[in-house]
Specification:
Layout (H helix, E strand, L loop, with lengths): L20 H26 L26 H7 L12 E2 L11 E5 L2 E6 L4 E5 L4 E9 L6 E7 L14 E5 L3 E4 L6 E3 L17 E7 L4 E6 L6 E6 L11 E7 L3 E8 L3 H15 L15 H7 L2
Length: 304
């Protein structure tokens, strides 16, 4: 029996292997994840605002300001309770803002702090806890955002308050950032009525009130019939019983901000709390503490 001779030049093609459906779905997901990681690493290298505190940058307490070395917070509060309102300029501890320069300055004028921000994404933190009135005196660029709030001590001075874990802040682009780290925020207008506008002479001043009983922070803008209050931080976002929380002011451009230490007696704290609760739609009514009782700001500042 004869057989057909095989052509030695003939080639055979194996059938192509077909990928399973889960593999096909997984490929674009993996590619997208790699792109996200690469983009994040590039941004961290080219811009200081995307770096975390563990990137080798110093936190607020790692170096000294021009007026003297940073003091231990517990010792400082014992020697200089915030309720005295006689706070020296070196209580604001600020260092390199992450960009290789240190152009933020703090000075005292008429019993208030004047903070001059000259770089992008810089912040300063005071190592004493108090109620405060924050006024934006000037901005080189109208779009400059000023951030103000409270955070754990020490705070990385190259990040705006609210952008790092353990902080809560209001940003003047009407957004709130709270205790999540990164750039997670949400819209937070202080004036919730679209038919009302804050007068210009009140629009740049914000008051922050601390409530020791509830571990809350309230923010107020305006006064009289143009006064608006909101709950900036609840007891899961502001936890001074667990960690020292102190005021933080930051900005993303050149501006001058004034910070005043203010006293808030219990009656004013209760009134502010109830106003803020109503604005949030909360069915809560806070009652005053029976006398005798020291003011909340007094006990709040000295308990750490």
């Amino acid at each position: 029996m004869s057989s057909t001779p095989r052509d030695i030049n003939q080639t055979f093609t194996a059938p192509a292997a077909q990928l399973s459906l889960p593999v096909i779905i997984a490929i674009p997901v993996i590619v997208a994840a790699v792109l996200v990681v690469v983009t994040h690493l590039v941004l961290r290298r080219i811009h200081s605002a995307f770096r975390d505190a563990g990137d080798g940058h110093k936190d607020a307490g790692d170096s000294s300001s021009g007026s003297g070395a940073h003091k231990d917070s517990s010792t400082f509060l014992t020697q200089h309770p915030a309720t005295t309102a006689t706070i020296a300029g070196n209580q604001f501890t600020f260092t390199n803002n992450g960009a290789g320069t240190n152009n933020t300055t703090v000075r005292i004028e008429n019993g208030a702090f004047l903070i001059d921000f000259n770089d992008e994404f810089a912040s300063v933190q005071c190592n004493a806890l108090f109620n405060m009135e924050v006024t934006i005196l000037s901005k080189d660029n109208p779009s400059t955002v000023v951030a103000m709030g409270y955070g754990r001590f020490p705070y990385p001075d190259f990040r705006l308050p609210g952008w790092h874990q353990g902080s809560v802040a209001y940003h003047t682009n009407e957004r709130k950032f709270a205790d999540r780290g990164g750039f997670v925020g949400h819209a937070f207008p202080l004036v919730t009525d679209p038919n009302v506008t804050i007068p210009k002479n009140m629009a740049n001043t914000y008051t922050f009130t601390l409530n020791q009983r509830t571990n809350e922070v309230y923010i107020t803008q305006g006064e009289g019939m143009f006064r608006f209050d909101r709950v900036l931080a609840n007891n899961t976002e502001f936890r001074p019983n667990e960690h020292p929380y102190y005021p933080i002011i930051g900005a993303n451009g050149r501006c001058t901000v004034r910070v005043r230490v203010i006293q808030r007696p219990d009656a004013e704290i209760v009134d502010t709390a109830n106003r803020a609760y109503r604005a949030e739609g909360m069915n809560v009514q806070l009652s005053p503490v029976p006398s005798p009782m020291t003011t909340h700001s007094h006990t709040f500042a000295q308990q750490h």
